[in-house]
């Protein structure tokens, strides 16, 4: 929504206006060990649920859950979900899936494993079925389960090593879209693809029975990976991840601004054809990547990730770095227009891992931070090495239009034109600050 408005001020001199997204709140969860938030989702009632990795004893705030929750991941030792439900891994790491009811009570947990290293990374729920993507014995893995945990089908790729599915989503006609990474040659059923060198981005489309419809690779000679995708309402999907130096997406050769890891956000149609791609990077940056993307019913994509050791650029925006690794957050439409982009974090290593968007357009983010960090006016301090953060961001943006520099006497009125973008109620009020000619806001 775009509206034009005028604000009447009864004071004097210059104005300074807020033009940024607003963090409504930020909370932490953590113990004495290293804790990481991996994924987050919001339900129709505005509640948020997140999952991740926890080391050591962790204290959660009291909360009430309002929908069934499914989580996936990996475990490497005997794991007790309930006194009567214990999972024992077959090897060093096994994949698990767990379900909790509306009151947060444990319902069931199952494992899938091999003699190698196994893990669940991506999770989607559609029409009472659960879809899990991950790796099984270091090869890409996709499976479908019903809501009682029974396995309907599973697909294990025939690859060489370091192959995995990181992101899963379900579109029209129950088609399943996946992304991840693979090396050398990957074969699923009768379809196979080869990498350009190193690790390439894996894109795959399956029907509801687990049969491959389309298999595709994107990338260059370096380590390239798709980390998350999200289907929009027109059946296309947003994609995010990272590539090294230079990579080919569709017919586009994307030259990274950094010779190290560059993040990217892209949009594909339902047939896996690239519509557009933009890099999220900066000269000299290392470790930049998009970790998750979600779309809402307005065909808008939200992206969260990390960047390190310098300023980040996305289209015409430059995002400064506070030190170490910082969190970046982007909002784009299906045509690639940058609706907002900014960074946040402290002087140590912070990383954004998961996003959720509610029906009002507010967005929720999770990840990890070390020692201390800041989200707007919210300061967080970790209990241990690193803690999990969960924060909410308002969808409203305020843009100040051009006004002339002028001197006013007390009691005079000044019209300040501004534009508000986002959904807001008719009763909302907007405020401005005035300064004197030295920039002092205390005595304008």
Question: What descriptors fit this protein?
Answer:
four-stranded antiparallel sheet, mainly beta, 444 residues
3D architecture notes:
The chain has 444 residues and is mainly beta. The protein has a domain at 68-101 and 105-218. The chain is built from no helices and 36 strands. The protein has strands at residues 2-10, 14-16, 23-29, 36-42, 48-53, 69-75, 79-82, 85-87, 94-100, 106-112, 119-126, 129-136, 139-146, 151-156, 164-170, 176-188, 191-206, 212-218, 225-231, 237-244, 246-249, 252-255, 261-268, 274-280, 289-296, 300-308, 312-314, 317-319, 325-333, 338-344, 351-357, 363-375, 378-393, 397-400, 413-421, 433-435. Strands 3-33-32-31 form a four-stranded antiparallel β-sheet, with no helix packed on it. A four-stranded antiparallel β-sheet has the order 11-12-13-14, with no helix packed on it. β12 and β13 form a beta hairpin. The radius of gyration is 23 Å and the shape is globular. The two termini are 33 Å apart. The model is unreliable at 1-20, 33-43 and 45-66 (pLDDT under 50).
